Prior knowledge:
Layout: H1 2-15, E1 110-114, E2 117-125, E3 131-140, E4 146-155, E5 158-168, E6 179-188, E7 196-201, E8 204-209
Parallel strand pairs: 5-7
Antiparallel strand pairs: 1-5, 2-3, 3-6, 4-5, 7-8
Amino acid sequence: MLAWILALLAWFALAFPTGDGAPPPTIEVDPAAPISVSPLPQVDVESSPPLTPPAWPSIGIDPVAPDYPVVSPPPDDVVVSPPGDGIVEPPYGGYAPPIGPGVPDPGEGRALVLAPVEDLSLVIRESYPPQYVLQVTSALPNGCAAFEGYTIDRQGSTISIEVWNSMSTQSVSCIMLYGYLPLSIELGTDFSSGQHVTVNVNGRVLGFTAQ
């Protein structure tokens, strides 16, 4: 501490010399003299008044009001049907396929044609008796083709299925897009264990042995 005070005095003498050329005055410092340090003032926290935050100006926002639009319920005389209620959307406009076997009239300007069949597979559900489901992948050759339905006929151990599309009979331009349509056809449970069954779908054949 003493060395620091002496250095400060030397700097002061060099920075502010006296005008008459006389040497700067010296200050005698007794190194043995005690240095007194004043303590910091004590603050009584309990008696101090509490801090109050500043009052912000009001901008007119109701804190209860929601920040999203409120949609009113429909009137009592309006019936809202659930999505997809009894409707099967066709992959390419035209006609919705029926719910279950059968082929409807495609309507004026369209004709029924057998659909190309790309793949057949069989799913056996674990139940008693076992349930057999035929997985069929049929095709829609172009954008003018529309799936119409299927028919199923069983004679003994032979099951014949026809999958039908409809095509326009008018001279129209069609998008050359080859589409696929998966179908699940229930074959039922009326099979004897060990019975060999043949399934023919538009000329494509699949055979299986009943469990």
